[in-house]
Write a structure and sequence with these properties.
Structural class: alpha/beta
Helix content: 40-55%
Number of strands: 12
CATH topology of the largest domain: Rossmann fold
Shape: globular
Number of domains: 2
Amino acid sequence: MIGAEMVATAVQQGFKVIGLGGPLMQEKGLQPLWDYNELPVSGVGDVVPKYFSLKNVFQVLSDAAESKKCLGIVSIDYPGFNMKLARLAKKWGKPMLYVAPPQVWAWKSKRASLFKQADNIRLAVFFDIEALAYKQVGCETVRVKHPITNWVYDCIEPKSDMLLLPGSRRDSALRNLPSFVKVAEKYRNMWADRNMGPLPDVVVVASREHLEVPLLVALEKLYDGRLPSWLKVVVAPKNISDRLNFYSAYSAALTSFGTSTLEMACAGIPFAACTAPDFFTYALGKFMVKSDYLSLPNAIFGCGVTPEFIIRHKLNDRMAEAIVDTLFQQDIGSADEIALRLRKALDVGKTSSELVSEFLAQFIKR
C-alpha cells in the first residue's frame, strides 16, 4: 500500500522504478527484479531453509542499486534486506529513503547506529514510539501518515461470522492455522451455549492470492478431506478501504501479529492477536525483545488495549478458552473508541506521495 503510492508518484514524475514489490506496486509501474512471493518470511526457523535463495535475491537487488543508472534507493520495512542495503548506501553515499526502518524501540536498538552521521539516508516512521526511540539514539526522523487513514467507510450489513487471519507469510500462516481453527470451534460452541442465534461461519483470510490454495489444502488435511460447510477461505481485498470495510462487518477476529492488528483495531471489531512461533524464534524473542507488547495498537498506546497471546508448543484447551473469553468480553463501544484514537494517532505527518516527491526533488534539480 505504501510502496504503490510511491511508485505511482515516481512514475508520474518521469522516473523508472525497478526493484522488489507486490502486485499493487507492479500495477503502478514497478518493474520487478524477482518474484516478490518468495520474500515474505519471518522467524529464524522459516528464514534459514531459504537462506541461499534469499541471498541470490539480495545480490540481484544490490547489483541494481550499485549501478550508476540508479539515482537513489527507497526501502520499506523488511530489515533483513533493507538494513544491508542501507549499509551499502552509506558506503556508496547514495541517497536513500527508508520508510518503516527497524523497530529499535522493541529490540536490537544498536541497529540505529548505522543511521548516525549518514546524511544520505532519510528515515520515515509511522508511530510516535518509533520517532522517540530514534531520537533517543541521535537519529532524526520524519512522520508519515499510515495508509489506514485513507479508509473511506461504507455502511455494511453486520455479520455474526468470525474472521481468522493466520498471517501473510506462508510458513507462519500454516503454523498458526490449526490453533486458529481450534479457537474458532470453541467460539462457535460458546456462541451456541449462549443461544445467540444461528451459529457463525468462519472465514479464513488469505492475505495474498498465492496463499489461498495452501490454506485450503491445510484446512482439508485438518478435517481429513471433509471441509465443514461453515469454514471457507477468501482472499483479502487489495484496496485498504475495501479491506477494512470487509473486516468491519464481522463479529470477531483472530489475527497474527503485524499490520493486521492495526487494521482490526481501526475496523472496530473485537479481536485478539495470536501467534505460534517456531522454537528458535520464540527463544530468540524471549532473549532479545524488550517491548512489553507485540500487538501494534498496544505498543502505540503503551498499554494492553487489545488482548494478545503467544502459543508455545501446542494450543491447549485452557488457552483456547481464554482467547475466546476475551473476544466475548470486548465491548463494541470501547472498540469504536480505540479505533477513533488509533486512526487519529496514525493521521500525522506527510503522505507517501509527498514524502517520495521530496526525495525525488534532489534528482530533478540535477
